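Deviations from the work plan: none for this task. Representative record:
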Amino acid sequence: MSATWLLPLPIVLPFATAVLAFLFRRGPEGRWISVFGSAVTLFLGVLLLIEVLSYGPQAAQMGEWPAPFGITLVADTLSAVMVVITGITGLAVAVYAVAEIDGDMEELGYHALFQVLIAGVSGAFLTGDLFNLYVWFEVMLISSFGLLVLGGKRVQLDAGIKYVTLNLVSTILFLSGIGLLYGTTGTLNLADLSRIAPTVDPGLMTVIAMMFMVGFGVKAAVFPLFFWLPASYHTPSFAVSAVFAGLLTKVGVYAMMRMFTLVFTQDIAFTHTILLWVACLTMVTGVLGAAAQTDFRRILSFHIISQIGYMVLGLALMTPLALMGGVFYLVHHIIVKANLFLVSGVANRIAGATELGHIGGLYKGAPLLAFLFLIPAFSLAGFPPLSGFWAKYVLVKASMDLQLWVVAFTALAVGLMTIYSMTKIWGQAFWKPHPGGTVPSLSTLRPGERMALLTPIGALALMTVLIGLFPEPFVLVAERAAGELLDPSAYIAAVLGEEEILQ
Amino acid sequence: MEVFVAIMVGALVTASVYLMLARNVLRFLFGLVLLSNAANLLIFSAGGLTPEAPPLIAPGADLPPAGVANALPQALVLTAIVIGFGLFAFALVLIYRGYQNLGTLDSDEMRLAEPREGEAADPLRSAEAR
């Protein structure tokens, strides 16, 4: 209980950074404030993770209101890991933005919006209260709206309309679900809900669970609900699409994991079977959609959808091994996906486009970039010894343990299709000569810019390799997170206090 | 009272789904406003609607007497209304800007971000989009 002061900081600090960055938005100071703030946020996240790993789940009651009445912030292993990974992505993108975001966008408040987005994401990971989760979703949503249309290009407005409207529908469904859940159980505290839920009519709970599944499903971009994602993620600036690709859909997956392990566990045979179907169809449709695309970022966007399927699969199988795989996949995917979008930004910068037909020659002119692309791309497809291999291996193993051969086969086949898309990018953007006859080169960038663009890409690639070569500590943490999800008694005890449990 | 509100929520959702199925983005937005109001009413009714018992706590007691309306959903609704208002203001401005720049409100015609097959290859068009 020593870390209660630490819990709100990963939320408060990005907000403070946002205010400062907004005040200094007219000069070059704003971007460095954003980088510095992101670094401190990451540091605080790491402190929190150490605390959680040594002393178990931590909870803090905001405003000293005792647990089921006030708003509680909780960090179990999963939350703390997600806060750290948010910090890593935030820092990488903040450094990248130094070179990519121009003065005009800075003056419009890019860095402030970005930091508010990070605050919203951290808040969603840390909150232990359902209505508070809704508020963090909204914080995240409104700042992502701003970031998406910032710059006001026509294509961004088109994408923005689709993104905004479909996400609003999902938010309203989520809100209605909260209303119904409060009406039936009389509490909004997640730990308290987990205690009360088994006493409520299971049929009613399943209906409510479906509202949450659809609401979070839109956010997570699962099979029939993903259309907003490939319509919008390729339009904003590259730093923005990297942070969207890394973090936003994963908040939906996290919320699903939380609710469907902690609260909606009355009718697992029904809800998790639906999730299993959704997971398989998401994997397949995403990867097939990517096969049909010819734009660097649109291919990557469809791959986000396909990868979401793997994470939902981990939740749907609901065994310790599968959940461990799901958590591992979540972490691996955020790093890899954000990195691939950052690479596409550099490719656009030096080769002049993201449409694969219009670029080429990157292998000849920028072998370093080609190497840095290969690492996350192979990791995404699941090549050993990179992080994606272990993530896929665990999930396939988990489905084979349950003798779900079709599911295991689907997961493997989708991995193969992923390689197809990655080789398409490789062949078109890197191997083929540039159609304009030029050889794109990293030396066309100013040295400072080159540094800011390539450092985050290199760091994230290094992390992918490290997770791949030394997976054990990461697997152990994921295993612990999965254990806490399946047996939430420590989580509940941290929130409500020990004596409540005994009653 | 709850039954009446429940029927009203149902009617609002019906109307909003009808509006949201339209191709016109503005009608879609009006549908969203109705849907969000339906959700707000739903939360409001979740706390119980009883005009008979005022939520007053007797001296010395910790809890109000049984049967009073729960006041928390009303606070939640207030938050939801404020957030919803901000989001719809943003969405309305976005759609207006979209209309000015794209020249249409028909969602089928908004194909800049997702061009039809074959159109993407036209460099002039994609240059204009950028």
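The two ends of chain B are 55 Å apart (CA to CA).
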